[in-house]
Amino acid sequence: MKFQPFFIALLATSFLFAQEHSHQSSRALDFPDIPGYKTLKTDLHQHTVFSDGNVWPNIRVMEALRDNLDVISLTEHIEYQPHKEDIPHPDRNRSYEIALKEAKDHDLLLVHGSEITRQKPIGHNNAIFIKDANKLLVNDAEDSFAEAKRQGAFVFWNHPAWYAQSPKGNPILSDFQKERIQKGELHGIEVINTGDYSEESLALALENNLTIMGTSDIHGLIDWDYVEKGLTRPITLVLAKEKTMESVKEALFAGRTVAVFNSLLVGKKENLVPLLNASLKFEKVKYIDNTSILEITLKNVTSSDLIFENQMPYTFYSSSPVFTVPAGSTKTLKIKTLEKKADLQIKLKALGAYIAPKEHPIVSWNIRLKE
Ligand SMILES: [Zn+2]
Ligand SMILES: [Zn+2]
């Protein structure tokens, strides 16, 4: 495509505008609200120099603003402190407090969290919405989980498929997790951590009614680990009644989430289908003159490429039945409806989305066709 001077000027202006007013950059993540709920973009697993990360907490806030996130949590390993010689901090709440100073001037919710870090079979677990991280620093992991529950925390099992703790790369649900679930001390599970999507973790989430989570688990810079590689950071979309701490917490306990990594979307059917429904808009619906071929433009309003397969009784003219609607862009289909219709049900299988291992959701939209 050739850029006209006008478009270059327009791009330059919008870039400057974004820089001056919102910290947001060209890689901003976007997802539409669904009926009854706000779709909040969250990354609830991140590290700084206050555990084994490489940046100061305020950098995490600025990255989140650039990515257009709504909610973040800095979840320092409470026990693992490799920078302790240089950054001694007997108060394990410091990372949160420093980040809060940066976040409070912006429309970004900062959730107080911590990573309870143990050997297998306990593994790593994030407790978020805690009140005092210091109290989680106790010998027995059981006591740490009990304390998190006392503080009203939402707790999720991190990277259960991590090969350092599970050499086959598959999660193993041990008696420890079973007991925590049964006691109401474990509520969610990461199905996407860093670049890894685990179908086995998704199966565990569905079998045990755990909230589906996706996180970056960032230690370095989002730019280096994701953006420069052409990737977007893994996030959890939280379907909340409002953009408040209480609503985010309520939605997490209720399991209203979708984990997202690039074009991969993973969630329970009741969450993922309405999200996909809201993600496509239909424009320029019209029959080609003197034909029964319906031309329709699909607009993807999200920051993820959406991949679909045709599930309608009609076939396409000049398009594969499998097609992509690029992030923030459009795709025009020519549907051979055989006769001119007054209404049409668009029915597509979302091939980049999963509601269970190997199971894609089917999404439909009813379109009114006017002459
Ligand atoms: Zn971890
Ligand atoms: Zn971590």
Structure at a glance:
With 371 residues, the protein is an alpha+beta fold.
Q: What is the topology?
A:
Elements (H helix, E strand, L loop, with lengths): L4 H17 L16 E6 L13 H10 L4 E4 L19 H10 L5 E9 L6 E5 L12 H10 L3 E4 L17 H8 L5 E6 L2 E2 L1 H9 L3 E5 L6 H4 L9 E6 L4 H10 L2 E5 L2 E4 L1 H11 E8 L5 E8 L5 E5 L11 E4 L4 E7 L6 E8 L2 E2 L7 E7 L3
The structure holds zinc ion (2 copies).
Describe the fold and architecture:
The chain is α+β, with helices and mostly antiparallel strands and about 375 residues long. It has helices spanning about 5-20, 55-65, 95-105, 140-150, 175-180, 200-205, 220-225, 245-255, 270-280; strands at about 40-45, 70-75, 110-115, 125-130, 155, 190-195, 195, 210-215, 235-240, 255-260, 265, 280-285, 295-300, 305-310, 320-325, 330-335, 345-350, 355, 360-370. The radius of gyration is 23 Å and the shape is elongated. The structure holds zinc ion (ZN) (2 copies). The site of one zinc ion has 4 residues, from loops.
